[in-house]
């Protein structure tokens, strides 16, 4: 993983389009309104982090901060790069950034298949599982309290 690097980008960055394409492929493939689903109320205000392999975006995550709570969303890794620690690298950086900003709690909605991944980083399930409003895929709200 030594040649993978993280970079914060804005929605005006040339890399942003690549990050959106990864999210569109993994979350909203074959959905007519996929770009509308990505461009939700949090997109423009989001803090966007990408993982690069040389100049190629291979993973992305979005962070929104409101008061003392961070919300992590839209974490996606290109299929050919999954299971190589890239998601962990992105998540650890978003947690580090949140702590640096004085955040007391980080929340996210995990796909059912990703719950154990987030539990490895001490995120705890909160409430019942539910179908996503955007895709219908079962999700679980999760929280990490920062001491």
TrEMBL record:
Residues 4-147 form the N-acetyltransferase domain. InterPro entries: Acyl_CoA_acyltransferase, GNAT_dom, GNPNAT1-like. It comes from the Bacteria. Pfam families: Acetyltransf_10. This is GNAT family N-acetyltransferase. It comes from Flavivirga aquimarina.
